Amino acid sequence: MSLNVKNVDSLSFAGKKALIRVDFNVPLDEHFQVTDDTRIQAAVPTIQKILNDGGSAILMSHLGRPKGGPEDKYSLKHIVSAVEAALGQKISFASDCIGEEAIQKAAQLGAGQVLLLENLRFYKEEEKGDEAFAAKLAQLGDVYVNDAFGTAHRAHASIVGPPKTLPSAMGRLLQKEVEVLGEMRNHPKRPFIAVLGGAKVSDKLGVIEALLSTVDALVIGGGMCFTFLAAKGMPVGSSICELDQVAVCKRLLDGSKPIHLPEDIVGLNAEGNYATFGIRLPEGAKGLDIGPGTAAAFTDVIMDARTVFWNGPMGMFEDPRFAAGTKTVAQAVADTKAFTVVGGGDSAAALAQFGLDDEVDHVSTGGGASLEYLELGDLPGLAALRGAPNVR
Question: Is the pTM of this model over 0.85?
Fold first, then answer.
């Protein structure tokens, strides 16, 4: 489908205050230092475009999942220095995202200046999509820009609210993400292979169904593989298995598209010791990674592809004992001559852990958003921008 959404490069922001929804949900260490600024760096091109035009930028984001109000550990004050380093300039910070301080600091912004608002999720109204809360955010700016691909699949107040009243556009990051994913979804070079991992089939059933209508083959690892193996009548021991999804997996396996499943498994035996199994796990055994034979077979499938989409680790890669499968698949995705897209989340974390994040064509900044876009071809954030008033 056509995006039919204005982008920041088609506009001039001279003299305008741009209210920008960014995704600065970045990891912090115990000293509140940013340990990975990828998402901050990804927003820089959009912010710089607006500042270079002679506009000012009001940045709003969430951080973590605060419960029931402000929590210091989730304050965006902790990332001010990281944002300043990425932009190469000082910025202002408002200790609330609405209210008098935010209104005053936004009003005082001059051309080329930047204001960061406090965590949107300190208000429960954000995740509820509350219109009154969205209106309070919208009054801070003249123009709204969505550059938060990682949350564009959520109908939150800061995503779908401001475009109802403000002229709006998508930022460069959001545009790049949907263009790359849209091209892969609609016009992939073939063979097109999708590699899916993660714990639960139920979490990814929609995207599995959508991908099976597009891909030439599916590769399944991670915890979800055991539900598929159970659908083939294999005993899976104590491994994670969604019994209510077995019939669905059987139907998918009986379809016309090949689904590659593990042929050996690494995990813990009934006594809790490291062990390698075939695909029939003994009672009490728990599978926690694909085995070496499977990793080699999956590599062959990936190397023969011309387009590869990977989302979800092959096992519990955070534990070195169960990281080999994910590492081998990550290396194959890095080495193949195919066009490669990694769908954010744990897959992106694994790539970074193995030092391979620069070896793929596109690493998405949003795991859930990339899956939803591949499934539906649209996102609530994009739909909201299409309905926005024209930029004056």
Answer: yes
